[in-house]
Amino acid sequence: MDETSSGNVTETAYYIHSSMPSRKKRQRPLAPAPLRSLKRARQITTTFHRLSRQLVAAQAKDDASEIAKLTKQLDEAGGREAYQQASQISTTIHSTSKWVMAHLVGKGWNRGILTAKEGHGDSDQTQPMNWRPTRLLEVGAINMQLLEAAERSNGKLIVRAIDLQSSHAEIEEADFLEIMPVQHKQYDVIVCSMVLNCVNTAEDRGKMICRLYHFTVPQGLVFVTIPKTCLQLSPFIDEPSFVEILKTVGFEVVEQKYSPKLCFFILRRPMMTYNISDDALRKWATVKEIRRGKKYRKNDFSVILNEADVRGHDL
Questions:
Q1: Angle 283-259-262 (CA atoms, 0-180°, nearest 5)?
Q2: 194 and 171 in contact (C-beta within 8 Å)?
Q3: How far is CA 29 from CA 16, 33, 34, 75, 148, in A?
Q4: In angstroms, rounded to a whole number, what is the distance separating the alpha carbons of residues 163 and 239?
Q5: 187, 215 in Cβ contact below 8 A?
Q6: In the chain, pLDDT over 90 holds for what percent of residues?
Q7: Which of 157, 156, 269 is nearest to 220 (CA)?
Q8: φ, ψ for residue 165, nearest 5 deg
Q9: Which of 176, 259, 262 lies closest to 224 in space, CA to CA?
Q10: Cβ count within 10 A of residue 17
């Protein structure tokens, strides 16, 4: 009887165990989940900018141990790939492409540009006129929005998109500070959104602004966006001085507006080139502190203008 009872218990126990649903182990994804948080995206871009600036400073001092440490920290933070993904999240909130295209549609430039056959710009009404495609350069392209707008234009809008590290086959991997303009093929429109603040030195920021001017045809437009903090929290520059720098290079400021986080500028290269005074060049040849206080220690944005860059001697 004991054996039978024992057998029944064993049999019953086996039945209960086999009837319970099995618990499957939750498998971990092979790749990290896609970034969706705007707050996290801002943290990533801020970290990338901070470490990149520190790395440039370490390289200038030839500090091998600091270079190795910062390079490792950048890699651990995801590097430029993570930065690009975070930037793409930001563009879903602040779409520069929509702003640019709305302005081009308003001018009719999405359908091409009417020019005299001798060149671009205002001309004698008796000269023969013709339509040609609008040429647009996007510096620091992180998405396909403007390229897709060009595809829909039936050849009336031609877009060249470049970035230091391409995120798509149609985005050219190139450094705007190094490329050379093609003769007579300057751009009617240049888009430089959230790029100037990513440049690591004041000298290269000045060089970029000068190149934006020289790469644009007379009467051409440049769209620039930068974080508001660059002009509000830097001890070296504010909104009036930044506008003065743009005008020193040669730009006319067509429009400037602000969102809670960003500054938007539409710049135009005028038909006439004006002489730039030596005094104006000297004023922006070095970085000077214009305000002090604890809140101005969070941002070191500044711009230095080099005479050769302003005058386009190397182009």
A1: 45
A2: no
A3: 33, 8, 11, 21, 32
A4: 27
A5: yes
A6: 52
A7: 269
A8: -135, 105
A9: 262
A10: 8
pLDDT digits (tens, 9 = 90+) for 86-101: 555 555 555 789 999 9
* 3-state DSSP of the chain: CHHHHHHHHHHHHHHHHHHCCCCCCCCCCCCCCCCCCHHHHHHHHHHHHHHHHHHHHHHHHCCHHHHHHHHHHHHHCCHHHHHHHHHHHHHHHCCHHHHHHHHHHHHCHHHCEEEECCECCCCCCCCCEEEECEEEEEECCCCCHHHHHHHHCCCCEEEEEEECCCCCCCCEECCCCCCCCCCCCCEEEEEEECCHHHCCCHHHHHHHHHHHHHCEEEEEEEEEEEEHHHHHCCCCCCHHHHHHHHHHHCCEEEEEEECCCEEEEEEECCCCCCCCCHHHHHHCCCCCCCCCCHHHHCCCCCCCCCHHHHHCCCC
HSE, side-chain direction, 13 A CA sphere, residue 188: 23
Q: What is the pTM of this model?
A: 0.74
Which residue type, as a one-letter code, is found at position 109? Answer: W
